[in-house]
Amino acid sequence: MITDVHHVGIAVLDMEAALRFYAEALGLPLVKRGEAPARGAQVALLAVGGSYLELVQPTTDGSPFAEHIAEQGEGLHHVALGTDDVRTLVAALREKGVPLQDAEPREGFTGRLSYLTPEAMDGALLEVVQPPRELSGGSAGDSPVSRIDHVVLRLPNVEGACGRMGEYFGVETKRTFERGEMRFSFLRPGKVTLELIGPKKPPSEPRPGPSTPAGAGLRTGLIAGLAFEVEGIDALVSALKARGLPVGEPHPALQGGRIVSVHASGACGVPVAFIDFSDSPR
Description:
Blueprint: E1 2-11, H1 15-25, E2 30-36, E3 41-48, E4 51-58, H2 64-72, E5 75-83, H3 86-95, E6 106-108, E7 111-115, E8 126-130, E9 145-154, H4 158-169, E10 173-179, E11 182-187, E12 193-199, E13 222-230, H5 233-242, E14 251-252, E15 258-262, E16 272-276
């Protein structure tokens, strides 16, 4: 029932500063902006390929996004998995004993949605959403950014998390490898890849696995990085440097093509990378 990564949520301190980077510097089209009073926040939605970025600025001290920023600083907040039947999906998750913040789907800024608790994925916050038709696939417009290539989740137990992604959502692990003391696993719920990274030997503390999903375990995982596919990486780097943004130099990427990063300080707390596959077969 999962169609793809619908959007990536980013908690920001200053909406206008966030829009200057994501909308102006990257050229991503703003498709919706408004208030979410029940969540104590103002929200902006930007299209990027078939997915979106959801920028959220808390407007009240009681907002869950204010709590997130107080605990972790501004930056990546959640990954929303799209579905065409959120009611049935949430009912199935409840039946499996998956810990949910929203036991029933509710109306949200991006559609009918339900958050899992952070413990469901060892601290990385996931949402499931059934978007309205007008938010069922964006476009990057004239931006050099064509789509979200992958989202990085740093987790204490990659193998257990892969098992839960399969059991909860039917999302299979496509590839796993180990390098040094680290394990890397790649899952594709649609066109966007989820890259799960963690220690080769997970900690000994009990954590929710495929057969024990209840909220055992520490909230040590997080959504750790965001990578966009681009065309014309050199021109993009020049434009970002002209704006005074902390961007590196393009270099060969492990997955082919060339990659460059913008320091989190220049992207509202988000470690952002850009990958250009123009001169490399995928």
